[in-house]
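Worked example 4.2. Below are the chains of a multi-component assembly; read each line carefully before continuing.
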Amino acid sequence: MKVTIYDVAKQAGVSIATVSKVINNTGRMRESTRKRVLETMEELNYRPNVMASALMGKRTETIGLLVQDISNPLFSEVARTIEDRAHERGMNVIICSTDANREKEKKYVELLMRKQVDGLIMGSSFHDKKLLQELISDGFPLAMLTHDDSSLPVSTVSVDDFKGGYEAASHHLFNGHRRIAIIAEHAYSSNFRISGYQAAHKAYGVECREEYFYRTHGTIENGKKYFEKLFHRKDIAPPTAIFACNDQLAIGVIQGAKAQGLGIPEDLSVIGFDNTILATTTVPGLTTVAQPIVTMGKKIVDVLVDEIQAGRSLRERVLYNPELIVRGTTYAAKESAANMKPL
Amino acid sequence: MKVTIYDVAKQAGVSIATVSKVINNTGRMRESTRKRVLETMEELNYRPNVMASALMGKRTETIGLLVQDISNPLFSEVARTIEDRAHERGMNVIICSTDANREKEKKYVELLMRKQVDGLIMGSSFHDKKLLQELISDGFPLAMLTHDDSSLPVSTVSVDDFKGGYEAASHHLFNGHRRIAIIAEHAYSSNFRISGYQAAHKAYGVECREEYFYRTHGTIENGKKYFEKLFHRKDIAPPTAIFACNDQLAIGVIQGAKAQGLGIPEDLSVIGFDNTILATTTVPGLTTVAQPIVTMGKKIVDVLVDEIQAGRSLRERVLYNPELIVRGTTYAAKESAANMKPL
DNA sequence: GAAAATAGATTAAGCGCTTAACTAAAAATA
DNA sequence: TATTTTTAGTTAAGCGCTTAATCTATTTTC
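Applying the procedure described above to all four chains together yields the following structure tokens:
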């Protein structure tokens, strides 16, 4: 049967309170007693029951991680660093994929609350803002990754999406491109990437055309689909460059382009976002805007755990710099050999 | 403050036992009473505390999933289907990445046991066989994915690795290749893939040369590295085809080959294994042996949950058929235009 | 050497729930 | 109508732990 604190106490010839004290390293006792209890625990292969101690108001040492889809490389890479850091900090992680679906978000939050998780990391946009505000006003430990909504009094860790968008567009513009399409995601962060893209155009004195702008879910299929939309429009000249707001979209674009016989980057330059493993597996490698995934994953755990330990919101806002990783999918546009500078 | 069963009981004017009964749908009571309690629960936004009920011997409705590395696409894809199915069955999943490291395996198993998880899924090879046997003989609900060790009395779900290896090698052989290298993983399943590869050679009357056999960890870097090893050996003619035992290795091989100026598949045919998202993002697409990931993920959860509910090991062994997905990285060998048949 | 302080341990209450045992009232049976 | 059975609910113990309150030596202080 299960070994309980009573078994240990009996065997060691002390009370359960004493055993509890050695478990938690609290109170005072003779060194010999501590040692004897420790040995007995070892001997009986005793494992304290987390449920019972959680019932007494201790932490469950479990945090919930809500992501859109753990099978998406960005999230699985983030999840891995979160998991590792959480373990270092003595916590387990329950991962839930919400599919950016309100119902699931709600269901999983409820479930996680019932399990008494100590805190929650929102791994990307969380759509049910009302539920979010409820959690926040309940003082529940919360940290948001990649969703820097300044209207919410929560700790956030994210990348400077504006800058990322700016750098991606600037790279294209610098390379002489003047017709640069953007395929954005239905995500909060995309708003900033779009703004950055627009700001870069302004800096270069290039008009930003509505016709080159699409917004969709960030899948490979959609990348392909919107590439085709872009290239089958009769009203506009096709773009010579595309800024896709995640790597999957970029890869879809590349696949669509290659299927049409277009050369990458000779005929079309493509930039992605995230620098997931996918960006490294294409040949040529995908030029993309890197998020410091490992750093961010670590940080979000630290922020959350600090908050849990402090017992109140620390409202930390951390913004990391994105980095443009130039690989093989971007190149000077045909119509302009000379590289360009902003105005 | 937290709403407890007492609050509900008081408000509804019943005893906590009655409330408990409506929560668990047990015992009998007037319909009007049940309804009143239900309404009160709703009204107070009451969420039963899983810890407390777990303490009373109920399930925690949590299962642990141990994988090598959740950031590896194969595992993240599997994890996603496991997660979904588990949720359908009313359970949460705690994911732990072991890095195929004994220490971590042990540490995470301990942690999960302390958290009273109802069962464990071993998502790939589990190295600490002793610990495994301990768990099994303790009667702890366990299911193994992709690790069909017949010496262990556990339920397993896996793909027919022998057949997968056989089909991969046969495809190369059929295409006329006679120098087919194999890069295997340090995983239990690789043994069968290797056997299948050897059996196919036998069927075609082709000698299997030791020099074309390597074993390593299944990363992109290692794919590249072993491609180079293979092509810089002076003692043997380089292979015209490679069977890599996972997609990452295959991609590494392709990257190495392209870096050397080799054309894929004209100069080198490559087959991977797993059919992860990575196999679809390369251009041309990677020919690979598909595991029915979704089916397997679902099944392993069902097996485990059935076992948990039955309260004893069902010792189910499920073997799925792999499927060779021919994409663009395999082609007839130069030295033989005609396709070949087995003896 | 008596009072006060300290060290080392125990007792007992209680966390939020489940459930076996019980009770009281209503319904069925004799 | 009296007795048995059924229904609808309650009481109370206990799951494995934490911790404040308590207790008993043993030391320290003056």
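Take a moment to check your reading of the output against the notes. Chain B has a mean pLDDT of 92. Residues 14-18, 21, 27-30, 33, 52, 54-57 of chain B lie near DNA strand D (CB under 10 Å from a C1').
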